[in-house]
Amino acid sequence: MAPVNTAENQTIGAMKSSPEGRPSGLARGGANPGDRVFRTLLATAAGVIPLLAAGILVLLAVSSMPVLEKTGLFFFVRKEWDPVAEQFGALAFAYGTLMTSFIALVVAAPAGVGIALAITEFAPLKAREWAAWIVETLAAVPSVIFGLWGLFVLAPFLHTYVDPILERVPGGPFFAGPDTGLSLFTAGVVVAIMILPTIMAVCREVFNAVPISLRESALALGSTRWEAVRLAVLAPSLPGIIGAIILGMGRALGETMAVTMVIGNAPQITANLLGPADSLASAIANQFTEATSDMHLSALTALGFLLFGITMVLNIVARLLVWAVARRMQHVAAK
Amino acid sequence: MNKFLRIAGAAAVALGLAGSASALSLNGAGSTFIYPLASKWFYEYNQNTGVEINYQSIGSGAGIKQLQAGTVDFGASDAYMSPEQMGAVPGGSVLNLPATMGAVVITYNIPNVDTGMHLDGKTLAGIFLGEITNWNAPEIAALNPGMNLPDLAITVVHRADGSGTTNIFTNYLTKISMDWAGAVGTGTAVKWPTGVGGKGNEAVAGVVRQVSGAIGYVELAYVIQNKMTYAFMKNRAGNFVEPTIASVSAAADGALANMPGDFRMYFTNARGAESYPICGFTWFLVPTHFNDPAKGKAFVDFLNWSMDEGQKEAPSLNYAPLPDSLVAKIKDKIATITY
After folding, report:
1. Per-residue pLDDT for B169 more than 60?
2. DSSP secondary structure string for all residues of B260-297
3. pTM, 2 dp
4. Do B162 and A291 make contact, defined as CB atoms within 8 angstroms?
5. Nearest by CB to A82, which of B191, B196, B197?
6. pLDDT of res. B299
């Protein structure tokens, strides 16, 4: 929306270029030494973050060198994981991480957006705060508790009631079975429950930020309740919704304890979602303390490096997507 | 009056500080298996002598690494150290002293089949290699004539995390089966041909309990305390032996004849009519020379205490006490520690 020429904006404009012609103190950072020190401190604090990320990246790369020298870059597309024979490859774990996160997003994204919509648009006023609070409490539960719950409650439940139904669904190889309850699917569901509060909370903020005038205009033009929501709330919030999903994806990729307890820990690439698999974070958590040989340790560090890389790449792609969508919407709005 | 109180208070604080400064404190790290017994030992020893021993159960491999880094005074491990590992410890020389013994028990979940199914090493290897896939297989039926074994798929459950239990179990299978030795081998983490992994004894036990047709391996203490269904294993002498503290001690007795002087040996598949075939030591990893005389003396006293009083407490926590003849040899070795 184009900036409106309010009184506020005019004052700010005046502050920005004072009569003497110099930019004002606020804009430039201050002429006196106190302000300069303050600015340097802030810049240092801000600079620490990328430095830290670069430091982690360098450490991971250096520690991965032994196994990469031995196996070459082939390590990242190799399925073999044999600590005794010291033959290592990351592909099976990468598959597990990506598949679990994908299942989690497929389950949690629609649910999160739907719950946020229900809370902001359709729920009775009194119930809204309570409903939001209950979902957000889920976010406070530690990851290990989700893992234990998944292992002792969800896995048997899915194994006894849900998996037999899924096996009869004509889903091709995806639900072929056999299954033990410890599987990609169970891990995906547990992680979905864990990222649901994140997606829901961010979407709720985004929907609440949409000005009422948009909804009112849609209704005034004769749309039904659902059409008003779709046109006036969902459409302008799209970048925000994608941002919420990115946040959820970030958490899903790195989730360790909950995944390692229910994924079945069998490093394999299988189309069968009801079969066991393994993930990058889970492999590191399981094997790191007992790995005595240097090559094994180096291989685990290389898995960490790969996870770092995957997370960074996916986040960059997602961020570009958000910018593209936001820019397209600005063009549409400016017309 | 006030001045008197203040002086008395300061004196009390000074005495208190002096008192706590004289209490000796040692640090150790390593095996999670020995942790329940070791923590009881350290607590009781502290009650008796005031010496404080702190232990972190971070895993055998991590314990060895910390010993090499010099951050702990001693380690504990379910696998003995290799010559390269011992050489990397500051001081260059380490003793592997057996502290206690544990057994690996095969637990299963088959409808209408109770504790006491007979299994032998070859069949077990076949199951864990994925070659025997159903409970009504002829190999299993041959060992259990008269038992009603259902047509049920076998689900193998193993450990997902690196573990001393896995080390003992795979060591046994490597000795018994050439196929296993070629395909998988021995280690705290191996490439399992089949099955799902659980994190820790709890997860393996939990999965076995929930999945009909599952088979897994857990530690003896866990099986006893949770009243699980377990198998009797065929030992070297040909007898099917129940895993108990007594049969583990018998295995250690059976292995004494072949025990090397530095105690670095796995005694899976030991001789003896009563020996349980899948068990092993947990070793204390102790440097041969302590730079701090006070710490050295304190730890040597503790080790001797653990060989006498400590072994008596092992059965109450479901650990097998070391045989007396072995204790004598270990004490001789403890006497060689300098400080």
Report:
1. yes
2. -TT-----TT-SSTT--SSEEEEEEEEESB-SSHHHHH
3. 0.80
4. yes
5. B191
6. 93
